[in-house]
Write a structure and sequence with these properties.
alpha/beta; Aldehyde Dehydrogenase, Chain A, domain 2; 2 domains; seven-stranded parallel β-sheet; four-stranded parallel β-sheet; about 45% helix
Length: about 425
């Protein structure tokens, strides 16, 4: 027999607060959807202006978060994700403006056709409704997620990491002020104001049917919990176990520039390459050059037996092939041709982003066609795995699942669709 324990006063208050947020989000969604693309664009531009105006307050709040992060022993990569600087705040505001410049997807006709009986059909994009976004560390996700939801006429309930709560509060206040400036409901964007993990549980339960979809953005444990416990649909974002494969026909100069950038431009992003695969036919000649360039830039290498026989480095364990380092560490494996590279990716990858470096067009096309990842690339850095670089204005994350959305999740991916049927009096026989 299960005994139902009474809620504590704190739990009852939190439950009431979360349900009230769901009610407010649902109420705001109707007004946001009816507002039209021009007013949503005006709101986004006002939100960007409010972020710029709030820079001193954002920096002060972020300083508290950074101090707390250091006290908690966060890694260098986590602190890098957490830190906001004037340049990053300017980029955050610019990102919101770029979302404003993206074509509003609501009302977009995806397909149209007419049947022999004269009925005209259209498949038309529309907002999903209320989207819950659960994320860690990066306070800039507050702005990215809020802006993308508004662009697609969705309301957002945001639950950031406890380590970034002070920063996220100030950013969310700026976004809400921008909505108010444009005459749109402030509750179209709401931030969960507590670090209590129980708030996540309420979101996973769906807030009494008010939450339409959840988007987790964070580490493996967060995503696993959301996917295991959620009672609403989830757009999943798994870790970025990204690979760069140096093919036997790779241009050495391109290979060096690409692998150094792919690993080290920013090690704390999910598009950072975690494993370099290099073809056995060129490894003796090219691997030392690539290894020295990486090491000179401060990267630790961990290799398989064949890699270590060519250049001295630490021994890679089985765990290394499945670790998202988010640090200046790169695992290295020597493989036999495209087949060997694809086999390694299929066994150890997270279906996020993979790149091939080669001047052989046929090999590149085979890799692009047969590697089953959300993003596949040729002769470029995996660090381009970013919605802004795709021209989406921004992203909530890189979806690695196969349903609804895959790859960068921008405004268009935050829509659903309906069918519009127009007749002239037809009845079905």
């Amino acid at each position: 027999m299960t005994i139902q324990l009474p809620l504590s006063a704190h739990d009852a208050v939190l439950a009431g607060t979360m349900l009230a947020m769901g009610d407010a989000a649902r109420a705001a969604s109707a007004g946001l959807a009816k507002a039209g693309p021009e007013r949503r664009t005006a709101a986004l531009k006002a939100m960007a202006a409010r972020i710029r105006a709030a820079e001193p307050a954002i920096l002060a709040a972020n300083a508290k978060d950074m101090a707390g992060g250091r006290d908690r022993g966060l890694t260098g990569a986590m602190l890098d994700r957490l830190e906001l600087t004037p340049a990053r705040i300017a980029a955050m505001a610019q990102g919101v403006e770029e979302v404003a410049d993206v074509t509003d997807p609501v009302g977009m006709v995806i397909a149209s056709w007419t049947r022999p009986n004269g009925l005209a059909f259209e498949r038309v994009r529309g907002p999903i409704g209320v989207i819950g976004i659960i994320y860690e560390s990066r306070p800039n996700v507050t702005a990215d997620a809020g802006a993308l939801c508004v662009r697609a006429a969705n309301t957002a309930i945001l639950r950031g990491g406890s380590e970034s709560l002070n920063s996220s509060r100030v950013i969310a206040d700026a976004l809400r002020a921008g909505l108010k400036d444009a005459g749109l409901p402030e509750d179209a964007i709401q931030l969960v104001q507590t670090a209590d993990r129980a708030a996540v549980g309420h979101m996973l339960a769906g807030l009494n049917g008010k939450l339409d979809v959840l988007v987790p953005r964070g580490g493996k444990s967060l995503v696993a919990r959301v996917q295991d416990e959620a009672r609403v649909p989830v757009i999943g974002h798994l870790e970025g176990l990204c690979h760069t494969y140096i093919h036997e026909d790779a241009d050495p100069a391109k290979a060096e520039a690409i692998i150094v950038n792919a690993k080290l431009r920013r090690v704390g992003v999910c598009g950072s390459t975690e494993t370099m695969l290099i073809d056995a036919s060129i490894a003796p000649a090219l691997l030392p050059r690539l290894a020295k360039a990486l090491e000179a830039a401060g990267c630790e290498l961990r290799g398989d037996g064949r890699a270590r026989a060519i250049h001295p480095m630490k021994e890679a364990t089985t765990q290394d092939w499945t670790t998202e380092y988010l640090a200046p560490i790169l695992s290295v494996a020597v493989v036999d041709g495209v087949e060997g590279a694809m086999s390694h990716i299929a066994r150890y990858g997270s279906q996020h982003t993979e790149s091939i470096v080669t001047e052989d067009a046929a090999a590149a096309e085979r890799f692009l066609a047969e590697v089953d990842s959300a993003i596949v690339m040729h002769n470029t850095s995996t660090q381009f795995a970013d919605g802004g670089e795709f021209g989406m204005g921004g992203e909530i994350g890189i979806a690695t699942g196969r349903l609804h959305a895959r790859g960068p999740v921008g405004a268009e991916q935050l829509t659903t669709f309906k069918y519009v049927v127009r007749g002239t009096g037809q009845i079905r026989p």
